[in-house]
Amino acid sequence: MNAALTPLGFLLAAAMLATSVALHSPWLPTWAAAALLGVIGLRVVQRLLWPVRVHVLVRLVLTAGIAMVVWAQFVPLGNRAVFAALLAAMLVLKLVETESIRDARVLVTFSCFLAMSAMLFGQGPVQTAATALAVLLLFASLAELVPGPRGESRPRLRATLLFAMRLVLLSLPFAAIAFVAFPRLDAPLWRGADEVRRGRTGMSDRLEPGQLASVALDDTPVFRVTFDGPVPQPRDRYFRGLVFWSFDGSAWTGEGAMRALPPELAVLGPETAYDVIIDATDQAWVYLLDAPTRAPAGASIGGDFSARFSVPITNVTRYAGRSATAYRMQERLPAQLARWALRTGEGNPRAKALAQSWRAKHRANDHAIISEALAMIANEFTYSLDPPLLGADPVDDFLFSSRIGFCEHFASAFALLMRAAGIPTRVVAGYQGGYFNESGGHVTVLRSDAHAWTEVWLAGEGWRRVDPTAAVSPERIERGSLGFRGATGDDDYFATNLRDRWDLVGAWWTRAIVQFNALSQRELFARLGIERATWREMGLVLVAGGFAALALAVAIGFRPRIGPRDPVLEAWRRLGARLARAGVPRHPSEGPRDYADRAAAALPAQAAPIRALSRRFVALRYASGTPEAERAAFVRDARAFRPGRIATFVGPGAS
Amino acid sequence: MAATLRTRLASRWESLLDRAERRLPALTRRRAPEPLPIDLHSRRVYVVPTRFGLLFGLTLVAMLLGALNFNNNGALLLTFVIAGVAQLSLHRTVANLRGIRLESLQGSPVHAGDTAVVSLRFGCGGTARPRVRIVRGADERIVDLAPAGDAIELPLTAERRGWQRAGRFTVSSVHPFGLFHAWSVLNPDQPVLVYPRAEPLAPALPRMAANERGPELRTEGEDWSGLRAYRVGDAPRLIAWKATARQDRLLVKEFSDPMAAEVTLSWNALAHLPHEQRISRLTRWVLDAGAQNLAFRLVLPGSTLGPARGTAHAARCLRELAVLP
């Protein structure tokens, strides 16, 4: 295959690569994605305008640069990121030197691999559809990379894309059967030693007011909860994730410090059971409602009632939870723990002084101190997702000058005030609210539902949740982040409905496709009557079903067309269909001339063009050796002809 | 010892080939010539993955393993979509060749040593056949065959005079994605005539030595002997237009030219030359006589052609020369 690479083939291959790189853009740093796409764009422009081989020095410099960048920027992000970034970079380099069909084929094949690896970072319906687009481009470019007759130059982009789409659609039955019947692994063959140090949900083991702002407007679902009983009100839906103990004056850390202690809980009311399907977070934290009473399989609950899996959630996972909403948590607080929960860190002298003045004022009445603080927050503060940056004493700065912020600011400031006033306090991060999808009957929790609140320890009551954000912005707590931002409301039925539907698609996709595993496969086979399906039986179903699906596709897709397609005849047929809609259907026995006469009589305003078109059709159809230009002109005019359009507006008297 | 082993291996190989040929006639390179038309039915279209197809398959396996290992169902689904399309492309590749029919094969007249153009007429059964590759020896051509069929011209180097077969050639296709290579070997039993090589530096026509009179000197009316029906190859200036106008067929004036009758190209007169050179010189003379539109007679062992003039006569003479033993 030493045939030349056509410009269209090159363009499609470049488009394929660009799509695959773009698929990684959700997690790639913006500059990296922009740089890769930029090099692709430059190369395309260069090859189209100035088709020469790129100098070897340029390629060497690019290679070295990319290797250094990947080493410096992606190694901290874990193996998967390094692999994907390296592959993307190498393929962009490959595009720079691609000049032959062979190179282009290798390029698109590995681009397909790159596109697939993007699914490891997320496999939602949108991501999958976008990857399917890459698959389409893969086959379109492969079709264009088959050497054709020499000197051929007609553009076939549309036909090529349609052809690829047709084959992709035809392969869907086979894909569906293979998907269902292909034996799944019960345990992975190898585990990516992925030390993920950066979460995808914006949750971090360090809480510093200002950090959650970036995810506050991200409405990607994190998990969906289906409750066994009645669905709790939004204001009661606190999903606990991380518990912070240490405060250094500006940031909260020390998550998990008290995990080793046994959980102590006195349940006072009925428990709630629920089922969670969580997207990959690359983190081990388990989000459970309020006070969990039983750890999900594979997870453990610590003394601070935060739960963790033993490995990070790198794939969509399902877990069952059980929680109490009326309880007393850890009624006896060990002295060492109390000391820890009272540390106030450095700086913020004014906040500490204020808290101490409250203590002096209310004496031993902890409740009064809490009320005083909440009242202050409710009266003098504003909730905003876009607060100003804070200075060296962030809490002082927040409490006495900016007075504007969101959950982190309030939780952090409130916790410091409480600690300074001598009340043991900890900060809890997780999700709050979510929105209830009525059609699906589940609660969908979005990234923008991320929340931080506090727990204070009161003698005789144990740890009690206090959410200062609820004081300043009850809306946020009552209606969830979407409702708070006005994204939902009873007045906007259509938008709500649409979002419900879309959320339902996401939920269905997760349950039916993403969650399908060895277990659900066995259940499905059992429902089909094959109990305890062995690999052999599954293989049999796979082979038989796969062959049937392919045979069906071949039968539908490769039906021989009777006779060559004639565009002139086609245009005439469509013209007839339009005339039929205008009220003059063609009789089967009627020739073109008789039909035109009858149509002209029925539509007098259009008589002249109808007759002219029929004359031209007869000439083109039954005379031999008509020039191609004339045929094309007829097809164009016949397509442009509309029987109803002019007849309505142009009367017999109009000029 | 080693020699006997080699002989035994060779005979074993031969018998294997024989068996393979009985089973898969078009696969081996020994298929006997077959008469036209040749239909490419599914039994004689073979298909294997290309090297790129193998690489593609390996990538698919890697994607499959990755998707299974990370239990990534989205990726698994798309991997199956790709596998399905690849599998469908296999059918497409075979279907692109199946139903092609080699309808005719025509060669333009050529002299030994020159390159003939062999025109292969393919019927397509009403379906377009994109990217069909036709390979014969070192010559290859990639064509898009139209639904109504197409004629493809291939060069054929003629080495010997006489009837010659176009030989074995391969029709193949990697359409649509280059993942699979389908092919069929054709060996049509349709010979092409190759005229003998014309001697480059031959003496002038024997008649020329006696009388330096060309046909252009002859005037109309001289030795006019009558009218006869037009035959393909007659010079247009000989057509009797007035007489033709009265009848409904073309008539040609005929001259009885006593001088022309003297042009006799005789095999026996060249007895001093070697066999092939005799043929070669006669070929040259026939060509010259034809070019000058002389009436001539060709005397060959066992037959005499002419006297007559025109390209038809010349072609007949050339054919006779070509098939001489």
Please tell me about this protein's structure:
The complex is a heterodimer of chains A (655) and B (325). Chain A has 655 residues and is of the alpha+beta class. Chain A contains 23 helices and 20 strands. Chain A has a six-stranded antiparallel beta sheet with strand order 9-12-6-1-18-17. The longest helix of chain A has 23 residues, at 535-557. Chain A is elongated and about 110 Å long. Chain A starts with 6 loop residues before the first helix and ends in a 6-residue tail after the last helix. The model of chain A is unreliable at 193-200 and 645-655 (pLDDT under 50). In chain B, a hairpin with a 2-residue loop joins strand 6 (129-136) and strand 7. The radius of gyration of chain B is 30 Å and the shape is elongated. By secondary structure, chain B is of the alpha+beta class. Chain B has seven helices and 17 strands. The two termini of chain B are 46 Å apart. The longest helix of chain B is centred in the first third of the chain and has 25 residues, at 73-97. Chains A and B meet through helix 5, helix 6, helix 7, helix 8 and helix 18 of A and helix 2, helix 3 and strand 7 of B.
Assign the structural class of chain A, choosing from mainly alpha, mainly beta, alpha/beta, alpha+beta, or little secondary structure. alpha+beta
Low-confidence stretches of chain B: 208-221
* Order of secondary-structure elements of chain B: HEEHHEEEEEEEEEEHEHEEHEEH
Biggest sheet architecture of chain B: 5 strands, antiparallel
